[in-house]
Design a protein that fits this description.
The complex is a heterodimer. Chain A is an all-alpha fold. Chain A has five helices and no strands. Chain B has helices spanning 2-9, 16-26, 29-51, 54-71, 81-100, 115-118, 127-131, 137-145, 149-160, 165-171, 176-194, 197-200. Classes of the chains: A mainly alpha, B mainly alpha. The A-B interface holds A 1-9, 11-12, 15-16, 18-20, 22-23, 26-27, 125-126, 128-129, 131-132 and B 1, 4-5, 8, 29-30, 32-33, 36-37, 40-41, 44-45, 48-49, 54, 58, 61-63, 65-66, 69-70, 127-128, 131-132, 134-135, 137, 140-141, 144-145, 152, 155-156, 159-160, 162, 190.
Chain lengths: 133, 201
């Protein structure tokens, strides 16, 4: 090879530490953002669960579901002889939309809890590496 | 503490590309530390050729490693790590200079292609022959430093990092023919500097 070569410049002594620290800083920031997002998601889904639960109760009351259901205890014989039409009426009065909203918000809460658990269990980038630099 | 050191030592035998693929699956931070160890000098020297001062070069190196860490998942198996990372360093350096706006950007602009120059046979400019009379390293360094940043980066990558012109074209994101042309111009430029009175004496 030719003798054309640029002179090698020595790397400043603390540059490696600076690089590791800057990656760690970025990693910390990302973790913090993830935690904040997870927390926000958890708060929103908890509030929506609360709201949807009230909505679900009011929908059940409006639909007359409880009245139909109470027949099982009060007039079980009638229910038994007209089981098909009773079931259809019961299904018809079930507020499926409100139920699915509640189920969805429960699912969202569980998801955000597991996300938060994963994020908090993660260590920040190579904090241990700083010990050996 | 010694255990951590020995974990890091385990990665010494791996090729760069193998390390990155390993990191994509394992997410072991020791791998990043090993990459930093391997590429700190290269990236610092390359950045220094761009900006010409220690502080800016340090900033660029830090930013480049952060970008590497963030984008490590995008590295493809068949790519060459050195080329990929030096592209990151170069782009970071360009962004940095753009933000600072204190460097004349014309020096990084693509030069117009001179087809007459390009058709000169490669034997006409032989770097080895050109410099064989100069034993004095300092003189050569002086000459090389006097080139434009664009020519400096190409010659640095070619001679110091021993990359091919094809690899350099990937790093500086210009067509291979343009890089060939710029490489030749850098050598022509050097030759003209050699003929200058100072070096003739």
């Amino acid at each position: 090879m030719t003798n054309i070569k640029y002179k090698e410049i020595e790397v400043p002594q603390n540059l490696k530490k600076k690089v590791i620290l800057s990656i760690q800083k970025m990693s910390n920031r990302q973790l913090l953002i993830k935690k904040i997002l997870g927390g926000l998601f958890l708060t929103v889904s908890s509030f929506s669960l609360l709201e949807f639960s009230f909505y679900l109760v009011s929908e059940f009351e409006k639909s007359g579901f409880f009245n139909y259901a109470s027949l099982i205890i009060s007039d079980s014989e009638v229910v038994f002889y007209n089981f098909t039409s009773f079931t259809l009426s019961l299904i018809d009065s079930t507020p499926f939309f409100a139920i699915s909203l509640v189920v969805l918000s429960i699912f969202a809460i569980m998801k955000s809890l597991s996300y938060l658990a994963t994020v908090t269990s993660k260590n920040s980038f190579i904090s241990k590496q700083l010990l050996i630099i | 503490m010694q255990k951590i050191v020995s974990v890091s030592m385990n990665y010494i035998d791996f090729k760069d590309e193998e390390l990155i693929i390993k990191y994509q699956t394992e997410r072991n931070d020791d791998i990043i530390v090993e990459i930093v160890r391997r590429y700190l000098k290269i990236s610092y020297n390359f950045s220094y050729r761009f900006v010409g001062n220690q502080n800016d070069a340090e900033e660029i190196v830090q930013e480049s490693f952060i970008k590497l860490w963030k984008n490590i998942g995008k590295f493809k198996k068949d790519a060459k790590f050195k080329t990929w990372f030096l592209t990151i360093v170069r782009n970071t350096a360009l962004d940095y200079l753009r933000k600072k706006k204190d460097v004349p950007f014309s020096s990084f602009d693509e030069e117009s292609t001179n087809y007459i120059e390009d058709t000169i046979e490669s034997g006409d400019i032989n770097a080895e022959i050109m410099f064989e009379q100069y034993e004095n390293k300092k003189e050569i360094e002086e000459l090389l430093e006097s080139l434009s940043p664009n020519h400096r980066q190409i010659l640095y990558l070619y001679f110091n990092e021993e990359l091919t012109l094809d690899e350099i074209s990937k790093i500086i994101q210009k067509p291979l023919n343009t890089v060939k042309s710029q490489y030749r111009r850098a050598l022509i430029n050097l030759r003209s500097k050699i003929s200058a009175p100072k070096f003739n004496n």
